Amino acid sequence: MPVKTVWPVEHACGHIADADLSARPADQRAGYARWLAGRDCTVCWQATRTQDAEATASWLAGQRAAETEAARVWEEEFRMPLLEGGERAVAWGARCRHQLVTAAYAALVTEGETNEAEWAVLEDAVRPVTRAGWWIDQREADPADLPELLAAAGGADRPNENPHF
Q1: Sorting pLDDT into bands at 50, 70 and 90, what band is 3?
Q2: Of the four, 51, 72, 121, 154, which is 20 to 30 A from 32 by CA?
Q3: Containing domain of residue 21, as a range?
């Protein structure tokens, strides 16, 4: 007698559905049916996934708003100039700059051997780098590398009052 190919599965959500397991080898069907029983049915899974996506998008928007506000407050407190670039790039770059510079302070001053006077020099080197794209490009950099990264920043990353020279 051949191993059945259609298995009735009572899903974790309580729905019962017939699962066509003919594409699986005969010796794997029972185990896969058992695995399916521990999961929601397709309809419930898709409904949950849609709700989760909406909740995730809402949570992410809230996180971005909080990060943007923290970056704005930080920019004012430390007299950081506004970044240059497109509207979305400026907002993203400001968040990246804030995160990188504050993490660098923790790595170099709080946990490292850089003193406050040396940090003040480094902070002054941060101010002229106003191209949002530069900060976005550095978003995954090691915070301890900030001094070297700033030294490598080119003229296009440090716009001046007269960009023609």
Answers
A1: confident
A2: 51
A3: 6-40
- Rounded to whole angstroms, the maximal C-alpha distance in the chain is 86
- Residue 79 is encoded by which pair of tokens? 């007299």
Residue 164 lies in a domain: no
Q: What are phi and psi of 155, to 5 degrees?
A: -60, -35
User: Taking 70 as the threshold, does the pLDDT of residue 18 lie above it?
Assistant: yes
Query: Is residue 162 situated within a structural domain?
Result: no
What would the two tokens of residue 3 be? 């191993």
For 70-114, write each residue's pLDDT tens digit: 999 999 999 999 999 999 999 999 999 999 999 999 999 999 999
Predicted pLDDT at 52: 74
Identify whether the C-beta of residue 136 lies closer than 8 Å to the C-beta of residue 96: yes
CA distances from 78 to 60, 97, 107 (A): 27, 12, 18
